[in-house]
Amino acid sequence: MTALVTTHAEEAVKIDPTNPKYLLFRGKPLTLISASEHYGSVINRPFDFEKYLDDAASHGMTMTRTFLLYREMQSVRNPSSPCKPESPDFITPFVRKGPAKALDGEPAYDLDEWNPEYFDRLHRFLDAASKRGIVVELTIFSNSYSPDTWALNPLRAANNLQHVGAVDWQEYITLKDKELLRRQISYARKIIQETSQYDNVYYEICNEPGGGTPGHATPADVDAWQEEIARVLREEMHRLHRPHLLSGQQAFTYAAKNAFPMDATFAGKVFDIVNDHPLPNTLFAGRTFEMGNFMSKELMLDGVGSFCRAAYSSPKPTVLDEDNTASLYRDTTGWTIHRKRAWTALLSGCHYDYIDFSITVGSEGGTAASRAEIRSWMQHLSEFMTSFDFVHSKPATDWILAHPEHLLASGLSSSAHDYVAYLADSRELSDAGAGKPIGGSISLALPEGSYNVSLYSPTTGEYSPAIEVKGGTKVVVTLPQFRQDIVVRATLRSN
């Protein structure tokens, strides 16, 4: 099993040497932005990943996230996620053999035999993404969350012929069971061997690692396991002369109120890229950031922007990975929340990945409504970022002296010649005024020089005609009435 596309793995996506908050891919600076399918491109046999990737590329998505082993339980709230295949359609790295049965009623897994169908599909997927210039975050392991989800895992003792993994779900991502760890390491090495020849991949060690349930593994236990898996992954990459990046986050705690500490993620050496799942009680640099409850339809723009600006002080790319505060709600209201969070994240120096639940088996390009709205809106954001020298930029909103009430400003300035501010209605849906028209004026304080100032619509992707303003003094610009959000851009005029 070999790669179908010849790529230069030694030039794999890497940290941009000019600005470590961004990435470098095929010689160009890269921001990660995606309305990603829910991670079943490889593991779900009927999912047409070619159709999905075609649509993703056409809408300017620069990355996608893919689970390599984890299978999620089907649920009433979200039954059609590609990460929830029917049992006969779930493809794993291990062959299924009889006569013994796994807990899902299908043949048990043979951990001693790799599955050719799985690796062939994985290669075809990575090949297709490579051809379209899409970077893939390969998620190697995941939290198991509950006994029901653990019941689906090939590495649970009741599901494999070797009876490996006779532990509770809370101990799956720990060093407790030596034979389970040995099998995890073997699988992790196999993934590196099969995929590290591609230049468009980086690896997430574990999705949402957590510990601290009473009587079970602590967050420190889980982090010790992550450190061991990271050591193995880097050792295998070193053996193959491959320079790929590792992403992830330190373990959160289930104890008392769930808490998501991030200081060690930024400061330690385990992760090259920081993945943060925006949630309440995120702890970093002595502050608590409230970024919205799971599937809550909470906007929480101030929490999102504040965390991103705080994270900018750390020399690692920061990805708001798997934002899902409103992704279940496949309507204009939910999509608008994610548009605003995406713009706030990128205009504060972060990267952004949102789960697009409009993408299902049979609708791999989303729906007509999602293509017209969230997918097109993400395309506008992607195209806007490529028009801006973000790699030489830094977060800055001090040039916006005043703006109408209820707006939150996020912004970047680039080399003192290009200034961008994203102004968004930060009111929650519970506020009767949320989403109503906003008008008024903004006051700008730009350096000496002559600037073209224009407005940009995140929903249409269109600019207003530019007006000329003089820097070096306060300038007042009248805004037309708008709803939800608007972008202000000031560019130094050439002589």
Key attributes of the depicted protein:
single chain; 495 residues; alpha/beta; 8-stranded parallel sheet; 10 helices
Describe the structure.
This protein is of the alpha/beta class. 24% of the residues lie in helices and 27% in strands. The protein has helices at residues 49-58, 116-131, 147-150, 178-195, 219-239, 263-267, 301-311, 332-346, 368-372, 374-386, and strands at 14-15, 23-25, 28-30, 33-36, 63-67, 94-101, 107-114, 135-142, 201-207, 210-211, 246-248, 252-253, 260-261, 273-276, 282-284, 287-289, 318-323, 351-355, 393-395, 400-402, 407-414, 418-425, 438-445, 450-456, 467-470, 474-482, 485-492. Strands 4-18-17-14-11-9-8-5 form an eight-stranded parallel β-sheet. A six-stranded antiparallel β-sheet has the order 19-21-22-27-24-25. It is elongated, with a radius of gyration of 23 Å. 49% of the residues are buried.
